[in-house]
Structures are given as structure tokens and as C-alpha cells.
Amino acid sequence: MTRAKIPLIETRRLVLRAPEPEDYPDFKATFASYRSRFMGGPLTPYEAWMLYAAEIGHWDIRGFGMWMIHAKADDRTLGMAGGWQPAAWPERELAWIIWPKEAGQGYALEATDAVRRYLYRTGWEGAVSYVGSRNLDSIRLCERLGAKRDPEAQTIAGDDLVYRHPSPAELADTRLSWAIAREIEHYADPKLSPEGMPVD
Amino acid sequence: MIAQSSLTVIERGTPRAPAARRDAETGILPDPRDRDSTAGEDPMIPTLTTDRLILRVPELADFDAYAAFRADAHAMAWLGGPIDREAAWHQFCALLGQWRLRGHGRWIVTRREEPTPRGLVGLFEPIDWPAVELSWATFPGSEGHGLAYEASRAARRWWHAQGKPALVSHVAPRNTRSVALARRLGCTPGETMPHPTYGETVRWHHPEGEAA
Known about the structure:
The structure holds 2 protein chains of 2 kinds.
Chain A: E1 8-10, E2 14-17, H1 24-31, H2 45-62, E3 66-71, E4 77-84, E5 93-98, H3 107-121, E6 128-132, H4 136-144, E7 148-149, E8 160-164, H5 168-171, H6 175-188
Antiparallel strand pairs in A: 1-2, 2-3, 3-4, 4-5, 6-8, 7-8
Helix pairs in contact in A: 1-2
Chain B: E1 28-29, E2 48-49, E3 53-56, H1 63-70, H2 85-102, E4 106-111, E5 117-124, E6 133-138, H3 147-161, E7 168-171, H4 176-184, E8 188-195, E9 199-205
Antiparallel strand pairs in B: 2-3, 3-4, 4-5, 5-6, 7-9, 8-9
Helix pairs in contact in B: 1-2
């Protein structure tokens, strides 16, 4: 078995790369915090280490997985985004997490939009996101990404919401993809940055 | 455009696609730090062979056997108790991830003549671990043939061939079969350690080096 290739994705403000050992402390800090409450956390140091190893091993096992999001400006890590499908997941998921201190800058939107376009160009014909019903930041992000609640879809544990992402055809050259690109531009350009409640 | 093969489950020996150029629209280009080779054997996870056994990289096809082992009350009696398939999935992925993070890890053990997974043996070093551990487990139905002993010897030999220091193994005191195997491997009992999932364990110290 050869190692699953983990491509590098660049966006206006971000570089998405394979998770590396030196990125672990930021991951651990977030998964030891209240921030991880919708993702099975907070975790003990042992559990966090095993989950980080699982994030990396997922690439080998599935051929896709989660990228580490870096700021292009100074290479600091901001969070993770990518494809995710543990054994109990009914469908392949688009997933994300942003470190608590980096929230509100539109990084999750920019990263997840890039990941979704990449996965669609490499064969995915759709995706869902499983979101805790009280995870309002992620529900908002689903809606900004054009995903719609699918009440018919099978959930993981019964208490999560399934958001179905627009298909590649629904996304290509549409008003929706134009709107996402504009919102990302507005976050990236200080003159245009939106005011009001910060969201991921 | 990135080749389709990079997103499918990679099979053994799958030829690599030519390196992709940056995609103008998505900004995708290959990661220069990618440790991937062009084809064939995983550069990080060697395959070991013994008289009867093959120790190889875990693959998706091994997951059902792995999950059955982790769900088996008898096999898991001294390993923190059985866990469900979903928890086993993360551990299974973590087997690969630990190789990527540490440069060492655990192998799936099979008999040379057939591919059925028989056990899981190799190196284990979670964060803040006191020393690199040699870990062994035989899957239900494959116990009693000395497979864990033979595989552990091979793993230890591989480890010491790189000039690495002596190993330890953490074993629950009432796990009599593993205590017997530790003794057979020449280990001596030392201090106790509260294991994050096993409860109280005894740290067994392996001898320095391994004769070939």
C-alpha cells in the first residue's frame, strides 16, 4: 500500500496541507476545550492523541481525510477541514473545526468551500455535514455554503442534523458559488469585511 | 487537475499518477512535503516476514476482523473492555496515523499462506508515554499457536536493527497469558503504571537488543 497522497490546496488567505506532528499542540488544545463539545470532546490528552492519529490514518484507510488549515501570512494553524467517514457514518461528510481563538474570520467558509470544490473535481458527487442541533455556528456555515437540511437522511445518532450540500451541478457557475466567493472576498479584504455577529 | 486515483482507497502497488501542476481555479498543487513514493511498498511501513508469519500495513479490508477483536469480551478483558465498531474505527485509523506521527507503529499479523488477520503486533507510543512500548494482541480464534511471540520477536528485531533503545510492555497483572508471553520474551517486571484505558498495569522491561 502506498501512502494516500495528500494534496496541498491554496486559497486567497489559506494553505491546506497534510496534518503533521508539529501541528498537534493546537489540535490538542482545541480538543481539550469546550470548543470540541459538538465533536465528542473535551478529550483527555490520550484520547486527543489517538484522535489526531486517526485523522491522519483516515487518509490511508479511506483515501481522503482532513487537511490542516494554515494562514498563508504566517503559517500558523487555524483548524481543520476535509472529508470524513468513520464506520458509522451513513454518507461521506464535509467536516471542519476552527480553533476557538481564530473564529469569526471566515476561515471555515474559505477552507470548506475550497475542500468541497476539490472533492467535487476528484469524483465526489455530493456530500453531507452532520451537525449537532445546538451547534449554531456550524448550522450557519452549512447555510452559507448552500447546504440544506435533509430531514429524510439517516442521522448518526438520532440527535444530529443532516445538511446536504449542493451537488457539483448545483454549485458550478451559479449564483450560489458567486455569493460564496463574494463573502470570502469580503472577509479577506479589510475594507469590505462584514460587520455584526462574527461567524466562522 | 489532480488524478482521480489520489482520492480512492489506494491499493497495493497502484501506480502513481504524474505530478499535478497547480490548478488555476482551485489553487491545488502537490504538497512538496508529501512523503509519498512513486509506487509499490509504503516507504514508512515495512513488511516483515518470519518462518510462519507476515507483518504488514493495516488495510481497510482488515477492519472487520479488527472491530470483531475489539468487540470481543474475552479478548478485551484486560484491555479496557470491549468497544463498539465506531470507537474501533478511530483506533483502526490511528494505527496508520501513529506510523505517520512516530515513524513506528503496529502491524497486522497474518500467516504466510493466507491473508486472514490473526493479530496486531508492534510499537506503540502515544503522547507522554514513558517509553516506546512493544504491544501484542492475538485475534479471537488464533490464540495458542505462539503467533504473538513470533511476531513480537520480529518487531523487536526490526526495532533494534535501527539501534533503538530497550522497549517496555504494559500488562494488566491478571492478564496471565500476556504475563507469560512477557516472561517468554525475556522481560522483567518493574514499576506499575495507571494505563489510560487498561487500569493499573505492570511495566515489563524488555532485554536490550534482540538476537537475529
